[in-house]
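RETRY 2/3 - previous attempt timed out on the joint model. Re-submitting the same 434-residue input unchanged.
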Amino acid sequence: MESPRVRDPERTRERILDAAQALILDHGFSATSVDAIVGRAGATKGAFFHHFGSKADLAKALVERYAALDRAHLEQGLARAGKLSSDPLQQLLLLIAFYEEEFEAMQEPFPGCLFASYIYEAKLFDDATLAVLRESTLLWRRVLRAKLEEAAAVHPPRREVDMESLADLFYSLSEGAFVMTKTLGDKTLLARQARHLRNYLELLFGPADGAATRPPS
Amino acid sequence: MESPRVRDPERTRERILDAAQALILDHGFSATSVDAIVGRAGATKGAFFHHFGSKADLAKALVERYAALDRAHLEQGLARAGKLSSDPLQQLLLLIAFYEEEFEAMQEPFPGCLFASYIYEAKLFDDATLAVLRESTLLWRRVLRAKLEEAAAVHPPRREVDMESLADLFYSLSEGAFVMTKTLGDKTLLARQARHLRNYLELLFGPADGAATRPPS
DNA sequence: GCCATTATACCGACCGGTTGGTATGTATCA
DNA sequence: TGATACATACCAACCGGTCGGTATAATGGC
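RETRY 2/3 succeeded.
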């Protein structure tokens, strides 16, 4: 039989958000029409404007969902690292390694980051929407900076470095690697860039001989 | 008297390209209308379609100009570094330092990179246009990788690293820092991120004890 | 030097198609 | 039976692009 046309408004909403995200990462927000979104989502314009007041509303809802997932993902990774090691430096290295694993396990080419997509069309969004980007960026900075200072307390860094910008390196390098992967279509690039961030931390905080990571004594 | 309406087609063309670039970095390509471009450039639609066959043509011409400047800038920096030091590692460190200087000297907030802007609307451009992005990315990889291998020959790295992805770190980190600056509006961020790349190279290729240069065995 | 001819550079009204958004109708649920 | 969750037809505004026209510069014959 045909699908019995079950009603599931939450799923419809999610399908629209999913379709919008995929299209926006390929075409940008402006070039992604409402018709194209509902076409891909298997919905109609009526459904779209029932769930979202406007296209701008969708933009905000979409990036809020994205930011929440991003945040949960980061905190989950840190929690997992915290269970595996009590050393803050090891936790950071593990966190990066987790991301590397995920990048390596990816099937399709990385579709890109919604934050970067938005910021290169920044003038199209209202300040409440852009505030989500800022807050997400600052969250990364805050969380990683705290962990880095813990690590520095245990393992005095071999050079004096600014901890804020060192924390920013995580976000920065991620975004840059996303741009580069999208440009070259090279799936391995993400993990290989992350590897260098790990190397840097190991060299910076590691023992003077620069040997590979050792479990904390 | 009024400006005597001098004819200068090349300048008109450049003015259109300049206006387009500024608008595209803020709104993206799709949301930048031809009317907006010519409005900002002080030209008309007639002039636009006289100089460019279509909006897509402008996109290609614009990114080609951008790529040529980017390439010239990189090669100039390397040439300048080559005059100041004969050591390839020092040349790389100088190259980064030059970029840091420029970032620090900037008045207005960094407007962003056209490559990243395009890649997040990738589906809007034909392959010839996207090829410009790829070629520019690969140029950075090629040039820096060659220099890094020279450096590694003189200063054996303290860890085994993949030189290709190490070369990619330059482009990657730049793009990421651009995204982050655009998000936070923090002018100092660019130079501070570049500083870490310099640190990484110094730690990686530098002497083990941090005192004297180790002669190659 | 001078004028006729041609090519270039530009102008701006206009066109068909697409856009975000609305109005109205209908089916499904509580 | 009222409210929710859609579906569809429609609209005004805007989009890239065209086209007839004009003003200026370059060219060539004399």
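Residues 5, 7, 33-35, 45, 49, 54-55 of chain A lie near DNA strand C (CB under 10 Å from a C1'). Closing ticket.
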